[in-house]
Amino acid sequence: MKKIIKELNIYQPHSARIIKIHPQIQGHRLFLVKFEDDKISRNFTYKPGQFMELTVFGSGEAPFSLSSSPTRPGIIEFCIRQTGKVTDSLFRLSPNSLIGIRGPYGNGFPIEKLENNDLLIVAGGLGMAPLRSLLRYVLDSRERFGEVTLIYGGRNPDDMLFKYELLDLLDSPEMNCLLSVDRDDSGTWPACIGPVTALFDRIKVEARSTYAAICGPPIMYKYVLEKLFERNFSYDRILMSLERHMKCGVGKCGHCAIGYKYICMDGPIFTYQEALDLPEAV
Ligand SMILES: Cc1cc2nc3c(=O)[nH]c(=O)nc-3n(C[C@H](O)[C@H](O)[C@H](O)COP(=O)(O)OP(=O)(O)OC[C@H]3O[C@@H](n4cnc5c(N)ncnc54)[C@H](O)[C@@H]3O)c2cc1C
Ligand code: FES
Known about the structure:
Blueprint: H1 2-8, E1 14-23, E2 28-35, H2 38-43, E3 51-56, E4 60-65, E5 76-81, H3 85-92, E6 98-105, H4 111-114, E7 118-124, H5 128-140, E8 148-154, H6 163-167, E9 176-181, E10 192-193, E11 210-215, H7 218-230, E12 238-241, E13 257-258, E14 261-262, H8 263-266, E15 269-271, H9 272-275
Parallel strand pairs: 7-8, 7-11, 8-9, 9-10, 11-12
Antiparallel strand pairs: 1-2, 1-6, 2-5, 3-4, 3-6, 12-15, 13-14
This protein binds flavin-adenine dinucleotide and FE2/S2 (inorganic) cluster.
C-alpha cells in the first residue's frame, strides 16, 4: 500500500547524491548528480531541453535545465547560477550531499525533427546550460545530423560557461564553433572579439535545411531573430527555450500559464511560430 501511495505522489523527489561540483564562471557551478537508486539511475532518460525540479532539503525546490546529454547515462549535470533561497543553500552543499530530484519535465527539443537537418545553435549567458545538452547529444550522434554550428558570446573570457570544453571545439572537424567576447583585457582570448551578432556574418547556413535553437537573455532574442529573418528562416524552424517562473513543473499549479499554454508542459521549447501566441513569454 505504501508503495502505491509513493508512486502516485508526483511531487515526491527521488534521492540523489552530488558526485562533484565544478566551479564555472563567477556565481555559477556545475553539479554532477547521481540517483541513489541504481535501478532508477539505469532507467532514467531524457531529452535535451528538458528540466528537473531539484530540492535542497529544508530550503525548497526550483527548476533547472539538464546540461548533460542522455547519450552519456549515469550522471546528470546541472549548470546553476546562485540567485536566491534554493541556489544559496545548494551552493553551501559539498560533494556527497543528498538532494532530491524529480522529472524530467517539459517537451525538450524535437530531436526526431532535427535529425538529417543542419543545426544552428545560438547561446547567450546561462542559455548555454540547456544548449550544452543538445550540443553533446548531436556530437555523440554525429551521423544523424547535417552541418552543426554553434554561436556563443560573453562579455569577456571569464564570462564564458564551459569555456575550455568549447575552446576545444574551435578546431573540431565535427562542427563549426564560433565563440566571441565583447572585450579581452588579458589579450589571450584565442577566438573572436566583438558583438556576438557579428558572428552571423561568418557563417553559411541554408535556411530551408537548418533548424536554429536559441537560448539566452531576453535582449538576445531580438537581435538573433533579426539575423535569422534576414536569412529567410521560416518561423517553424526557429526553436526557442522560454523561461517562466514555475512551481510544480507538472501542469497543476498554473504558475507558468500564459493563456491556455503551460510553459512547464507545452514548453519550455517553442517554435517562433508558437511563441507568437505567447507574447508575454518572449
Ligand atoms: C525551465 C527552467 C529551466 C531553468 N534552468 C536553469 C538552469 O539551468 N540554471 C539556472 O541557474 N537556473 C535555471 N532556471 C532558473 C531557476 O529555476 C531560478 O533562478 C530559480 O528561481 C532559482 O531558485 P532560488 O530559490 O535560488 O531563487 P529565487 O529565490 O527564486 O530567486 C531568483 C530570482 O527570481 C526572482 N523571483 C522569484 N520568484 C519570482 C516570481 N514569482 N516572480 C518574479 N520574480 C521572482 C527573485 O527576486 C530573484 O531575482 C530555470 C528556470 C526554468 C523555469
Ligand atoms: S509550473 Fe505549475 S503549472 Fe507549470
